């Protein structure tokens, strides 16, 4: 950081009783600078069946990421959550492994062959990708690590299309419940004056001491995540009448 640059993003919302106009007020500042190509693309989606929303999105993303419709406005910022772990794997061959050991038994690696092609379709390279049940293998010197990361388990992004159709704060919050990654802090306000803030996305539950800052033993399934924190346990504030 330098020259007054701000690090991080912020968003906030204010209840009707704290605004001069008597309506809820919402602001979002994702702190993403102007770039070429642009990060954000302004868009207005209007289609039969209740879809009439405007805001900004990412190229190729379904729906509107930050925006509003006739009843609800919302914004999001990154949470900075620790949702990636590395596991030291025991493999049958240090150069070109085909199996990994788990709970004393050899398991076959899932192997995928990827072709890298140039603009005219010319084959440039062939890459071999290997996966354990946790995720892809990466080389770390002479060792092999597998990576489990929530974005690898993300779905199609249809949650954003549900957000775009929300008609109240409660429906907007419900639309996020199946969302996986990247984890976000969401704020929302609706025409009735309700406001809320809640994180969304999946947060892993780790075994033992729960630490996520160390390489775990990949040779035992006891090192695996035991599940995810339930959405009902997330820090959350919903206030239909007063500010917070």
Properties at a glance:
244 residues; mainly beta; four-stranded mixed beta sheet
Question: How would you concisely characterize the structure shown here?
Answer:
By secondary structure, the protein is mostly beta strands. Helices cover 6% and strands 41% of the residues.
List the helices and strands and how they pair.
Blueprint: E1 10-14, E2 25-29, E3 41-47, E4 51-57, E5 66-69, E6 72-78, E7 84-89, E8 99-102, E9 105-108, E10 110-117, E11 123-131, E12 137-140, E13 143-149, H1 158-165, H2 169-175, E14 184-190, E15 195-200, E16 204-205, E17 216-217, E18 227-228, E19 236-239
Parallel strand pairs: 7-17
Antiparallel strand pairs: 1-2, 3-4, 4-5, 5-6, 6-14, 7-13, 8-9, 10-11, 12-13, 14-15, 15-19, 16-18
How would you sum up this structure, described in words?
The chain is mainly β and 244 residues long. The chain is built from 2 helices and 19 strands. The protein has helices spanning 158-165, 169-175; strands spanning 10-14, 25-29, 41-47, 51-57, 66-69, 72-78, 84-89, 99-102, 105-108, 110-117, 123-131, 137-140, 143-149, 184-190, 195-200, 204-205, 216-217, 227-228, 236-239. The strands form 6 sheets. It has a 7-stranded antiparallel sheet, with helices on one face. Helix 1 packs antiparallel against helix 2 (169-175). The chain is globular.
